[in-house]
Design goal:
Blueprint lengths: L2 H4 L3 H14 L11 E13 L2 E7 L6 E9 L10 E12 L6 E10 L4 E11 L5 E9 L2 E9 L13
Antiparallel strand pairs: 1-2, 1-8, 2-3, 3-4, 4-5, 5-6, 6-7, 7-8
Length: 162
């Protein structure tokens, strides 16, 4: 005898379906709190040995962002088109409780303009969340998406998750 045939009242079936739905995970693994912050940033100058971009965040959350990018290798490698880079994102959201700082590391390909950095939110809103920047540099300005995924931390082997 199956579980559905054991249920005697229609309300019991609805409760059983509701409890089952609460226990299911999303099929694609996406978190309902996964956050995407589109940005545009203009080169603001050099500070502390790194290049700095500043600009608005777009979308419902709004605010301003500051990206400080530092080349990891020495000065001789600066002439190469692809850099291993570290970055610090500082986000001053329109809603102060959603402001945060994140430390990222990854690659910048100046020839194609592609940037891909990933790391962790180190302070403020969503502290500890995995964060990645996927962007494009055009004529010295940066644009792209900053993605935050709570509960996804850097793997132990140091390689970004796909």
């Amino acid at each position: 005898m199956g579980i559905i045939s054991r249920l005697t009242h229609p309300g019991e079936l609805l409760i059983a379906i509701g409890l089952l739905a609460l226990g299911l995970k999303r099929v694609n693994g996406a978190s309902p709190r996964h956050v995407r912050l589109p940005f545009e940033a203009t080169l603001a100058g050099v500070s502390g040995g790194g290049s700095v971009w500043e600009g608005p965040l777009h979308g419902a959350r709004g605010g301003r962002a500051r990206l400080a990018l530092y080349q990891v290798e020495g000065p001789l490698e600066a002439a190469r088109p692809v850099w291993h880079a570290r970055a610090q994102w500082t986000v001053a959201a329109d809603s102060p409780e959603r402001s945060f700082t994140a430390e990222l590391e990854g690659m910048v390909d100046w020839k194609s303009g592609a940037t891909h950095l990933s790391g962790v939110v180190t302070s403020g809103w969503m502290k500890g969340a995995w964060v990645q920047q996927i962007g494009q540099s055009v004529n010295g300005d940066m644009s792209g998406i900053l993605e935050l995924a709570p509960g996804r931390r850097e793997p132990r082997d140091g390689k970004p998750r796909s």
